[in-house]
Amino acid sequence: MPGSSLIRGRRILALGAGFTAAPDGPLAGAVVEQGAIAQLESLPPGACDLVLIDGDAWDAAALAQAVKALSGLRSAPPVLLVGETLPAGLVRNILRMSAADILEAPFSPEQLTAAVAALLAEAQPAPTQDAPGASRCWGVTGAVGGAGATTIAIEIAHALAVQANKDRAVCLVDLNLADGAAAAYLGAQPTTRLADFGHAADRIDAAMLHAFITPVSKGLDLMAGVRDPNAFDAVGREAVLRMLEVACECYDWVILDLPRHRRPWTLEALAGCDEALVISELTVPALLAARACSDEIEAGIGTGLRPRIVLNRLASRMFGPAPSMGEAEKALQRKAEAGISSDWEAAAASANLGGPIAQHRPKSKIVKDVQSLVQKLVAQPPRRDQPAKAA
Predict the structure, then answer these.
(1) Residues in a beta bridge with 215
(2) How far apart, in Å, are the Cα atoms of 233 and each of 177, 198, 212, 306, 315?
(3) Is the Cβ–Cβ distance between 252 and 164 less than 8 Å?
(4) FRET pair for 334, CA 20 to 30 Å: which of 30, 220, 268, 308?
(5) What pLDDT score was predicted for residue 124?
(6) Weakly modelled stretches of the chain, pLDDT under 70
(7) What is the dihedral of CA 176, 182, 187, 189, to 10 degrees?
């Protein structure tokens, strides 16, 4: 398991034999020093970036005294206390510190990584941000399952990153929190569970957001979580909206891969978007679903944003049952914004190799069609609505 980018190179004083800095461990990349609780009573300023304490490995009274002494230091480092049986008094003393947290055992390596990264993020200055409102946000959702929304969202994000040609230009956010596929399609490895955001919206800032980011390529970062069937229940509405607000402050472009089924935050997230793209296949049920989905979004957000329908997997044909573009628009009762050609081989090869189609099959018709769509949308004036904020 790769460690968070915030952990790499940081000095961690680990009090307890259960912690490891192995290449595949939760503290991978950190400089870990094994220590004893006696060190806490006279810890020099700047001696470490974080203290990690196994509360089950030490006598409770001695540990409480050491923690009390540490809290009295003028510049105490962040402290993470882990354990299964933690005395209430010790927990209270830990939480009185300016930068401290508790992680109850048993916990996963991903949870330990996330907790350490969050404390380190709080302790370091936030990355430089662009002026608020300078970014543009596009939402992508499928009219039906399997319409190819994730593939198109990835290709759009990649095309924008290539066009921008600078670091931290585009953030692709996979909001299919329970079982999103963007990371697998890109051959990327999420570092943690987005459920670790929980309901603590007030703690999410640019530095913490960076701890949850997986770099994909120059200019393109991915925010996605590992599979977690409980994620939709574990992540609160306010946390999702705050996460998107901060992402829009940090990146020029934010592309949302939205779940097909509505969540408590779906319409508010779309209300903060400059564009909403509904991806449909060329089947009658999918077209009817696309029309209904577009109407629901337009009526639900009430900002005047008109969703754009994109027809995916267009195939050249002389005969056959698949509807043409014109026939599809009759079923939609509105014009389609664009059509994306069918190229199953290119899409499958890229998914298997990991990465955008533009990387592995740059001459694919899919790449050309997505680039045309991106150029068309970029030319549109941005909406001036600010990203949705948590109430």
Answers:
(1) 221
(2) 10, 9, 19, 29, 40
(3) yes
(4) 268
(5) 55
(6) 1-6, 18, 20-24, 45, 73-74, 123-134, 191-200, 316-323, 383-391
(7) -30
The type of residue at 227 is R
Partners of 15 in the β-ladder: 53
- In 144-189, DSSP assigns E strands to 170-174
Cis omega before residue 106 (within 30°)?
yes
Give, in order, the Cα–Cα distances in Å from 74 to each of 38, 44, 52, 279: 18, 10, 19, 56
65 by Cβ neighbours in 10 Å (0-12 / 13-18 / 19+) ranks as middle
Res 4: pLDDT = 55
* Angle between helix 365-378 and helix 149-164 axes, rounded to 10 deg: 70
Question: How much is the pLDDT for 168?
Answer: 82
Contact 89, 62 (CB under 8 A): no
**Full set of structural domains in the chain with CATH:** 11-123 (3.40.50.2300), 136-378 (3.40.50.300)
Nearest to 312 by CA among 334, 344, 351, 266: 344
